[in-house]
Amino acid sequence: MLFYYKAIDPAGRETEGTIDALNVDVAIASLQRRGLVVSQVRENEKKTLFDRDFALFEQVSNKDVVILSRQIATLFEAQVSALRTFRMLSSETPNRVLGKKLTEITDDLQAGAPISKALAKHPTVFSGFYVNMVRSGEESGKLNEVFLYLADYLDRNYEISSKAKNALIYPAFVVFTFVAVMVLMLTLVIPKISQILIESGQEIPTYTKVVIFISNFFINYGIFLLVLIILGAFLIFRYAKSPTGSLAMSSFKLSIPYVGDLYRKLYLARITDNLSTMLSSGIPIVRAMEITSDVVDNKIYQDILKDASEKVRAGSALSDALPKSKEMPGVIVQMVRVGEESGELDSILKTLAKFYDREVSNAVDTLVDLIEPIMIVALGLGVGTLLASVLIPIYNITNNIN
Fold first, then answer.
1. What pLDDT, on the 0 to 100 scale, is given for residue 57?
2. pLDDT tens, residue by residue, 180-211
3. CB of 312 within 8 A of CB of 322?
4. Cβ atoms of residues 171 and 375 within 8 Å
5. Which domains, and CATH codes, for the chain?
6. CA 363 to CA 164: how far, in whole Å?
7. CA gap 304, 147 in Å, rounded
8. How far is residue 239's CA from residue 337's CA, in Å, rounded to a whole number?
9. What is the pLDDT of residue 381?
10. Is 339 exposed, middle or buried (0-12, 13-18, 19+ CB in 10 A)?
């Protein structure tokens, strides 16, 4: 493996170049044996075109960050220095994108930057929540505990989000299959059968005429319909990114029957878990609420938290600052008040987080149980109705001939 380095030679001159070594540690050892004082070492970024193209498809997943956090916590517990920890992990991680970012973090640490500042330069991997948790660990001297907190938190958050998303995969597949079957029948099967019906000269029922009309529309204007759908999806995506659109989409998510209740529980689990984790790490309540509002991923809850944080900053208690509404149930407000009075707010929020985690899990299981039979029946009825609309007239023609 080729590494690029900068160093100071015995004469005090700055030098740079490349060295071939098994890993970063071996490269540094080899340079030091030459009498060089190493200031920077990183993997040489000269890559083939194939490597660059392949790297475009690589991403840093939540699972990668969870594993990384646990590895960092373990190494810190073993009294390994931060610089050596990140240098080791940068060369060992199988994800090349994450490895490159860890190498850059190692360079920043070697230049004297604190860990939180080095991590903050990579917001696509380490969120504001993550960086602030690390900063609190630096201030309290409990970095190994903080990284364990982060690994546990990200694990829980990933599990909840994945379960909610996976619940929608099956119905999405069924809907896609239904649409594909209907389009294929309307564009390939129905035209041939409708030709037989028209040539027979028999009276065609109204419902069959409707099916033939839809079939002709798909054949003649299907491409325009596809372009219109793609354009509409693009415009909706752009609108959802605007402040007004973000609020509208957030409100729409919460208003969908049953699914909206699932989203609501998911956001409440995320809020209570975030606040509990940060408060237990010593982050002030106002700052914890501001960070949580940035990562909750819903404009309505973001506005609620930001408004509440302003009231808390002005001197109000959190239980008084939180609105009693459908989005923020009274049970949360009451539990927060109990936590404030007992001085165990982080513990109370952790209990609420566990409660809503279970609620999300139960809601997802119920949703899957409801969706499966509904989708199967809908698929059967759709295809059956389509076939009946053309097969019944053919049956009538056959009887008339006999």
1. 47
2. 888 888 888 788 877 877 777 777 778 888 88
3. no
4. yes
5. 2-46 (3.10.20), 62-154 (1.20.81.30), 165-402 (1.20.81.30)
6. 9
7. 29
8. 39
9. 84
10. buried
Distance CA 17, CA 3 (A): 8
Q: For Cα atoms 180, 236, 171, give the angle at the middle one, nearest 5 degrees.
A: 35
d(CA 160, CA 332): 20
**The pLDDT of residue 227:** 94
Please provide residue 33's backbone torsions phi and psi, each rounded to the nearest 5 degrees: -65, -25
pTM of the model: 0.67
Low-confidence ranges of the chain (pLDDT < 50): 47-57
141 φ, ψ (degrees, to nearest 5) = 75, 25
Positive or negative, the CA dihedral 307, 308, 310, 315 is positive
What token pair was written down for 212? 């033939």
In 3D, which of 391, 364, 375 has the Cα closest to residue 159?
364
For residue 52, the model assigns a pLDDT of 46
Mutual angle of helices 259-280 and 128-140, in 10-degree steps: 20
Largest CA distance in the chain: 109
């956001």: which residue's tokens? 267
